[in-house]
Queue: 3 jobs
Job 1
Amino acid sequence: MKSERIAAIVGVAESDLGLVPGKNVLQLQAQAAKAALDDAGFTKDDVDALFTAGNWAWAPNLMLGEYLGIKPKFTDGTNIGGSSFESHVGHALAGIRAGLFDVALITYGSTQRSNPARGAAVPFAPLTEQYERSFGLPMTVGAYALAAMRHMHQYGTTSEQLAEIAVATRKWAMKNEKAMMREPIEIEDVLKSRMIAEPLHLLDCCLVTDGGGAVVVASARAAARAKKRPVWILGHGETHTHNSIANMPDLTMTGARESGRCAFEMAGVTHDEIDVAEIYDSFTITVLLTLEALGFCKPGEGGAFVSGQRTAPGGAFPMNTNGGGLSYTHPGMYGIFLLIEAARQLRGESGERQVPDAKLALVNGTGGVLSSTSTVILGRD
Amino acid sequence: MAGQIPKPVVDSDSKPYWDGLNNHELMIQHCDDCSKHIFYPRLLCPHCFSDQISWTQASGQGKIYSYTVVHRAFGPFADQAPYVVAIVELAEGVRMMTRITGNREDIAIGKPVTVTFEKVDDDLTLPYFKLV
């Protein structure tokens, strides 16, 4: 590792997860923020930078800052979908490196399960949406289905191979008491589940839940007085390549090729040094494409890479160890939960699902319709 | 059936495109500097940033880049499932989202298609494609 110790994750927490009809998005974020600051041994008054992403207010940072009683000297509402929080971590690293602040609070909350907007017809399609919305591609699953179909055509990837990911992820969820779906499933169960948008079945798709999370990032100076040992932010990269799926340059290659390359270069580590990977799994195909784009295998080899339950507990490539968006929780923009699990793995706090002696973790968020990617490499001393 | 099919908010980028569809012509843009075709329409060429953009009628010929058969649809589309949404690459090199009509069993990536003009609502004509 060549990376300097500039900034670290020192606190992580989830709010209530699953079906949480009694709480609004501000309560979920407040609950997670307090727990994450407790985890760090910090108080609200330590926080001098605020990060959030959402579409629950016209300027979420303003409403959240007011609600929490935080007046930050640095604020960032970057919203690039589910990968926003990996970008927040990268931006916090940059801000701390520049000496702009010491302690960043990153939060997310969603009540999409209890207050679904899905299916509500928005009657007008403005700006670049006007060229696509009238065709009825169900979002976001239809876009990922288009990518999966292309990958199958180009490389011979099979539904069984995609199902391997769902099955392995469920095995991790069975070890996580916070996971929503903990009944074992077989590959056949995935293939026999209801077809949503060919070739993606119901069990290729993430859950729809409520929930929130928070991550506290501290400068090396502030991290020294934190309660828990620091999880250093060693590398980060981000990009976005398109907004709508018809404009994705290559349906089989995501921006993780670029964001991953940047993160690996900054961290000065290699693929085979990564002990645990937390890869955004909005759909099984998201994972397969990301593994290829990050360079864990060659383009087209993702199906073989995940076959034989290689990503399951005890497998050669421990991945999505909390049970993922597929089986643990997925409140819309899932990226913050990848960071929470990676930090816990590196602190050795993951109990039954702990990857033995995990020192280096890779987190890759994906947002929109494979539109944005943000990669973070984390390590412990 | 819940609600109407989302209506395009026509603007000065898109008006020639929608006017073209109403006349059963598929209009796309062409960059007069780098000679690449452009879809969707915009003020600047996304390849070379030139503002020397002109409109041209596309051949209407293309091939299927990818597709999906939608089984679970929402809102105004719920009653239409199953149906095929695709990305078609036109002979001019640009890609667009569309529907493919006809027998689903015959649809495959790479197959040639040709544009049709589908009046889906009183004031909305969309470019669909069918197998050649």
Job 2
Amino acid sequence: MAIRATTDDLSFDGLPKATPPPVRDEAGDEPSVIEVRDLGIRYSLRLTKKNTLRHTFINMFTKKDGPKDFWALRNVSFDLVHGQSLAVIGPNGAGKSTLLMVLAGILTPSEGEVSVRGQISSLLTLGAGFDQELTGRDNILLAGAFLGLDHREVMERLEPIVEFADLGEFIDAPIKTYSSGMRARLGFSIATSVDPDVLLLDEVLATGDAIFRAKSKARILELVHSAKAIVLVTHDMGWVTEFCNRAMLIERGNVIMQGEPEEVVAVHLEHAEQTKREKLEQIRRYGGVAPKIR
Amino acid sequence: MASIPKASKAAAPAYRSSSKRRSGPGLVVDGFREVWGRRRLIRYLVQADMKKKGADTLLGNLWWVIDPLMLMAVYVILVTVITAKPQPDYPLFIFSAILPWKWFTATMGDAVGSVVGQERLIKQLHFPKLVLPVASVFSGVTSFAFGLIPLGALLIFFYSDRISPYLLLIPVIAFVQLVFSLGMATMVSAINVFYRDMGNAIRYLLRLWFYLSPALYSAQQLESLGVKNPTIAVIFNLNPFTILFESYRNVIYNGTPPLWGHLVGLLVISAGICCLATWMFKRVEPAFAKVL
């Protein structure tokens, strides 16, 4: 049982596992697929506010008080080896999605180091790069190029993607004529067409109509089984215990606990319950008026 | 960190990132490598842009041919009204400057919003953001190429006596301009992420730049003004478009060689600007996903 407030040293050897982790000695026989060391992500509040030159000048002359930085994540370290799937849980705004963004390479660490080995696929990308004027088919090529796949690979996958998206004639019509469900279907088909070594999942899984939802769930399960490592961010505790053999609880950018899914989920639920009680208590104290949430 | 044995099946790190930033020259090399590695993506982006520009209008891509002609007509009327005695063959005289200038302004206009416009994608996918301004520069090239059609028509139907073999050097001058545009585009696209004022300011800066360049009037006229007013002389000498406009005008209008020495100098400086811009862009690139 490893409950740690700090994450200086995290070796999970000796933990009982559904799939026992490969023994790691000092030489490192089994290279970890994901390696995160002392990761910290800092947002500069100065920069993230919508900036104009005017504000910069004003800020230059008036030294405003208050925090200039905000750490979305701090002191996060973990290793994920072949065959492990990690569930990241925690309340809203804890930094779960930020962690996924770092693993996907979208954010660069302000502190520490991250390395991911192998083909990464994040299902964060449902249709983000679509160009309204291009046809569905052209958009598949464009998305492939954005994902950095080489041309041959994209051409090989083109037909399976078209088939899975099941858009009929619309595949050769501009995306702007699509309904939002059709767009999501195409996005999902592209995002899941790669067989990744590392799969990053945020809960974006409810797309399209019932038939497509069933189909997409099956496809995700397929990916989950073939991927070497999975990181899943979710609020659905069912997924955590069903698919993951490790879990991590994050609160306010800090790792509270890592370990067995059941145990971490239990702690998370307990914390959530406690927060709820506190909120209710506060509401009662302020005479039925909900306090401002910080 | 544990060393990875050679026999291991695991591929090289697909992705590694740390808080340590690379050195200046390293960043520039990285940037050039990224752009070259994603040249197909740039091509797709250019194609998408061309489709988009042609799609909404009745005349479609025909506007690329009509636009410079219209602009020329406006300036011809304007200048003939104001100054009684413009240059001989004035339409061709200004067309040789309007054509490259239209290319430059269109490129800058597209480039300034190229990164900001892909906000959603930048927040959801890891890809080299440098391709965005670069793609906007290359999609500008096509509009320049289409602009050569009305130029050809003008020369053949109205000014056939001015046709000279030097016309074949237009691509050489255009190449120098392209390198210069690449550097500028990369720079403004990055600045605009942090200061959205850039998008507004650039329109007026470009307009001012145009009037300070020898486009509507000849370089000799500006130079003679510079004798009396040192400020004008400085602007005249530092303005890269003095060299570009004069070179275009030499090969199109005067039938003389371009300003070779100056062009080579400008090419070297432009390459320097490109490196500087790439360094700057790569330096701030990690912040894009946070700021947007």
Job 3
Amino acid sequence: MTDILNALVLFMNFVGVPALAYGSQLALGALGVTLIFGVLRFAFFAHGDLMAFGTMVTILATWGLQAMGVSLGVLPTALLALPFGAAAAVLAALSADKAVFAFYRKQRAKPVVFFIASVGVMFVLNGLVRIIIGPDDQRFADGGRFLFKVGEFRDWSGLSEGLAIRTTQALTVVAALIVMVALFRFLERTKMGKAMRAYSDNEDLALLSGVDPARVVRWTWVIAAVLATLAGVLYGLDKSFKPFTYFQLLLPIFAAAILGGIGSPKGAVVGAYIVAFSEVMVTYAYRKFAMYLGPQDWAPEGLLQLLSTEYKFSVSFLILVAVLVTRPTGLFKGKVF
Amino acid sequence: MSAGTRIAAAPASLWRGPLLYAGMAALLIGVGVLQGWNVALSILCFGLISAIMALGVNIAWGYAGIFNVGVMGFAALGGLAAVLVAQPPVAEAWAAGGAGLGLSLLAVAVTVAIIVLVRARMARGAARGWVTAALIGAGYAAARAAFDPAVDAIEAVNPASQGYLGGLAAPIVLAWPAGGLLAALAAWGIGKTALGLRSDYLAIATLGISEIVIAVLKNEDWLSRGVKNVTGLPRPVPYEIDLQASADFVARAAALGLDPGEASGIAVKGLYALMFAVVLGVLIWLAERALNSPWGRMMRAIRDNETAAAAMGKNITRRHLETFVLGSALVGIAGAMMVTFDGQFTPASYNPLRFTFLIWVMVIVGGSGSNWGSVLGGFLIWFAWVEAEPLGLWLAGGVVALLPEGSAAADHVQAGAPHMRMIFMGVILLTAMRFAPRGLIPERTGR
């Protein structure tokens, strides 16, 4: 019995908790991508770099606050700095829309034109981030490191395996949940949320019903940019901030959005957790886990790892291909034009 | 490109292309005079390679509207071909792990055969799915059981300089077609599954595959030494040092008023440029022939109106697959040429901004659908990419002069200057899309 409990705790510690946190970060990113896709009808390729941009401003503000001696105690100071980062990201997204995308919207250009234009925006944002903060790793987490540590859990439970939950992981999950609930309430209850959904469902019908497209587009950018910053800051607190890693997050984020059904917010959240759990589960070495569950004094040869961690992107890719081939509309019937 | 863009009533002047090319040549000559001929020839060589990549992307995008964002992966596969073709084989590694690798390959083949057989006999349904999954799992475990010890054995052979299987010790020029073939095979596999999807899904899929290719090349040390890099690849041209040691060469250089060091660099790069130019010439001739053939007209018909072309009985998915494979093959050839020119294969240096999106900027700026435009875009954007760095440094120098000397802020500006090129590229792309959506040398239509 204790062996099974030990195996479970081990699994939770190395798969459950990290994947839950990672999934929450992906969910926030995927929600932004899916909203932009639903309303503006193109895959926004600069989303990773928008995340990096918002996070960068948050980090700079965090450093400023730290220098002034401000702190949140157990919680990371970055939470206080978040509004600055979000504001900067919103500003960047709105300027990109005004300078680039508005023109093509007026022309009613094909989605692929928007898509290529978003590559241009990606270059600019990427360059800005690299110039301002540099291409290297930055750590900006402070405050309490752990909610509880491995040793504390072990003493409390009497098991030989321990469970640790980092403050940032708990914070990520809680913050993501709050934001998701708020977003869904916004989309379901408020006039603007309803207008956005209507516009995403059927543009012409929404226009006939008196929805102001300019406002819908503006709100979409604002929400997507805030979500992107939040996702980026939580990811950076949990792991670390590196501009190139944020660019690479595009792949799991899009995999999540497409798996859930692109354009469907509910799908984006579900898809994000599926992608995160698959990624972590496939790259986890099950050796010790199997030792607990197997017969006594038995040890498997090798690590029992399906794929080495370097290949975690292939998991997103495989999920993506599987979905596209078998069910292109995704789990929640997104749009396929 | 975009539906609402007004197309100029008069066709672009016939002189436009030659004039732009002459301007490009003048830019390179300017670099030669101001920064030295070695720099100019090096830009020319990379420009030729970039032009081939841009041509490849243009074949898929301009002929068929396929949005391939996996350029980096195909270029890296071409680079891998250079290693596999030209490096000497490591007999010891083959002896240590060759059998194990063969065995794991056999396990994969047997698994696939069993799965195909079993699936043919079982009825559709959940049971078949579970049996397939179990068979995949068992086959994977069997293959890994043979693969892991073999890889450990191979990587233990002289790890400082070898630790991989090596190649065929063939002339490296053969790697160019081989790289094209490797990239074409990969493209065929991807195209079979992902083509026919809407363009942004295909883009994400190709972006994913290119990341996976790079991850494989970085981590499978037995194949190409991973991040330990393969250096000192054989060359199709003489070495600078040998030229400098040859009395005849030194005398000729002196007759031209050059010192042997500079002259040898110019001679080597000049030879490379000549070889690359021949390859580009052949490829562009073939591409133009294809575009003006019945096949090319069919491709454009499909691109401009898929529904109508399908109604005429054209097999669209198949034609798309053809162009995707052809375009990727060109990128593979260019990738192999680039590794030949560098003389080393460094998987960690592949970056999607430089190898995928930069090529896209070349095609869009040069003119989508226009071969000569994409080639010009290749030269021009590569030139801008290289020269953006000194420009950024110069701009940074202006800012630094205002800051206190040696301060942290001054260092920061200096360090950030090379990244200015990203912003330049973004602005160039966005400006070109907005004000010249059909590119510098637009596709000629309506003939």
